Amino acid sequence: MASGNLEVRDLSVSYGRAVRALRGVSLDVPAGSVTAVLGANGAGKTSLLRAISGTLPFHRGGVDAGGVRLGGRALTGLRPAAVVRTGVVQVPEGRRVFGRLTVEENLKAGALGARGRAGTAEARARVLDLFPVLAERARQRAGLLSGGEQQMLAIGRALMARPSVLLLDEPTLGLAPLVAARIGATVAEINRQGTSVLLVEQNAALALELASTAYVLEVGEVAARGASADLAAGDELRRRYLGAAAPPTERGEDTGDAADAAAGRGDRPTLARWTG
Ligand SMILES: Nc1ncnc2c1ncn2[C@@H]1O[C@H](COP(=O)(O)OP(=O)(O)OP(=O)(O)O)[C@@H](O)[C@H]1O
């Protein structure tokens, strides 16, 4: 289903004159991959997804420089509906389902933006197979679902447009660990079925488990990127995002970065820093 690599190049985004949310951000989502973007509150993760999906103008934001391409085709400047038709679909943060509509109606709404009508029944079957609870609740109002179920519906609604690239903004935010793990497993399955995923998460442990490659955004810039396994093993990311102490040294103590450097221990995985 994947239709090419998603490429973000030298992207700068601002909201009015005062807020520069992204500065010169470049990243790749290879076709068929799960790629993660980590970062603290306000780092620019959501702005990145908005720039890709064409929804920045809804938030009074805009692209100042750089651009986004899918399979070589420029997405920058396209309206959100046109971006969806290229196969790139965003699931916004905060599980924004239509609360007064039923689950079934929400799914139908998701199919409206799809590339042609053919395939809607197949997409619906896929969604209900991934999330059987949505079939059970088909006639219930979406607003009455639990938080986890609303997140499933938000993802299911996006899948109704049959995306080749799914943009996921903090899908596990505020969910109990078991529910978050269930969402994570489903994201892996969606990817296994051929959909590329760009996953924005504050839950770094989960994101690094799902993704092959991850980027760390700090104050609007890519501070690090690398294979998820390397990033997860790296001291800096472990300390900052995984809430874990660095592994002990041979002497059984954490000497910290400076002492490590002084001692010449350069063999630990390090974050690949971009200098611009
Ligand atoms: N609509 C907006 N108008 C003005 N500034 C905004 C707007 N949306 C985001 N910002 C600002 O842009 C910067 C990046 O925000 P963004 O939401 O992209 O970060 P984030 O990493 O997704 O954070 P969070 O996890 O809190 O959503 C922040 O300084 C934020 O305050």
UniProtKB/TrEMBL annotation:
Q: Which organism is it from?
A: Actinomadura yumaensis
Please verify whether the record's keywords include Phosphoprotein: no
Family assignment from sequence similarity: Belongs to the ABC transporter superfamily.
The record's region (Disordered) falls at 243-276
Do you know which PANTHER family this protein is assigned to?
A: HIGH-AFFINITY BRANCHED-CHAIN AMINO ACID TRANSPORT ATP-BINDING PROTEIN LIVF
A single Gene Ontology MF term assigned here is: ATP binding
Is ATP-binding found in the keyword set? yes
- What Gene3D superfamilies does UniProt report for this protein, alphabetically? P-loop containing nucleotide triphosphate hydrolases
Keywords from UniProt, A to Z, are: Amino-acid transport, ATP-binding, Nucleotide-binding, Transport
Q: Which Pfam families does the UniProt record give?
A: ABC_tran
Where in the numbering of this chain does the ABC transporter domain appear? 6-244
The protein depicted here goes by the name: ABC transporter ATP-binding protein
For this protein, the record's InterPro entries field holds: AAA+_ATPase, ABC_transporter-like_ATP-bd, ABC_transporter-like_CS, BCAA_Transport_ATP-bd_LivF, P-loop_NTPase
